[in-house]
Amino acid sequence: MFNWFGRKSAPARFGVPWLPVEGDKGFARGPDGVQVLNRATGEAMVRRNSAWEAGVTHVQEIQVDGRKVLGGQQPQILAPVGGSLVDLEARAAISELIASLQAHGLIGS
Q1: By the 8 A CB rule, do 50 and 29 touch?
Q2: pTM of the predicted model over 0.85
């Protein structure tokens, strides 16, 4: 619909937000906070700190049906060591859980 958007050939009524830097090919810079969809990749792109950021979402928490399901990173969980009864299979499973939570960024490492 707006194949001209962001190009120098855009109708004058839309203003002239062109980048003045050499090599920018006349694309619109847009103000910080503008969000667009990259149709080639399906990723949302947001203008932050005068640059386009793709594939990153900044949120405080995610809720489902009013219940918090994801929030800020939690502190590190230490793997089990020592104790009077050693269960190698349980320790291995707990260590794998900890590694997975760390890999997803849910807890510190």
Answers
A1: yes
A2: no
